Every structure is written in structure tokens, then in C-alpha cells.
Amino acid sequence: MPIFSNASHYEKLKPGLAQRDGHKHVIAFKLSGFNFFFDKDTNQIIEEVMSGMQYDGYEILDTNVASLNYYKCLMTITYQ
After folding, report:
1. Can you list the pairs that 11-19 forms with residues at least 24 positions away whose Cβ atoms lie under 8 Å?
2. Do 66 and 30 form a contact (C-beta atoms < 8 A)?
3. Tell me, what's the pLDDT at 36?
4. What pLDDT, on the 0 to 100 scale, is given for residue 6?
5. Which of 16, 80, 18, 7 has the alpha carbon at shortest distance from 45?
6. Interatomic CA distance for residues 54 and 2, integer angstroms
7. Which of 23, 30, 29 has its CA nearest to residue 58?
8. What is the pLDDT of residue 2?
9. C-alpha to C-alpha distance for 61 and 13, rounded to whole angstroms
10. Res 18: pLDDT
11. What is the pLDDT of residues 1-54, one digit of tens each?
């Protein structure tokens, strides 16, 4: 299970986002507790976060998922 709980994944992450100011920013968060490097649950979390950001007017410029170990990965989203 991911590190997020109760509130939506995006709502938990949202306070860490920079204000929309035309500059590039990056946010990183860890995902954990899955059996494969990239599975359905992980994909749903990433989709929820990215959809929420876009709905709020952020432009997604780049994404990266890096494996920390078998059960954890680091997701980074570059946005404007």
C-alpha cells in the first residue's frame, strides 16, 4: 500500500506544489508496498496525481519513476 492514506493521493501531495508562476518546478514522492516495479495500483496513484495537477492548471513537463528497491520507487514530476 502507498504511503498515502485516507485523503486522496493528490490532496496529500497538493500542499507541496509550488504556486503557478510560469517557472519550472519538481515534486518527488515515494511509492511503496507493491509486488512489481510498476503495477495497476501504482499506475492509478500516478494517474490520480497527474490528473489532479492538470485539473488545477499545472502543465506536466516530464515524469520519472526510479526504483529504490524491490518494494519502493521514487516518482518525480516536473511541472509548470
Report:
1. 11/52, 13/49, 14/52, 14/56, 17/53, 17/58, 17/79
2. no
3. 56
4. 52
5. 7
6. 22
7. 23
8. 43
9. 17
10. 95
11. 344 445 788 999 999 999 999 999 999 988 876 655 556 777 888 899 999 999
Quote the cell numbers at residue 45: 496513484
Q: State how far the Cα of 10 lies from the Cα of 23, in Å rounded to an integer.
A: 21
Q: Which three cell numbers stand for residue 7?
A: 485523503
Cβ-proximal residues to 13 (8 Å cutoff; 6+ apart), any chain: 4, 27, 29, 49
How does residue 58 score in pLDDT terms, banded at 50, 70 and 90? very high
The span from the CA of 65 to the CA of 7, in Å, is 23
The DSSP H or E segment spanning 61 is strand 60-69
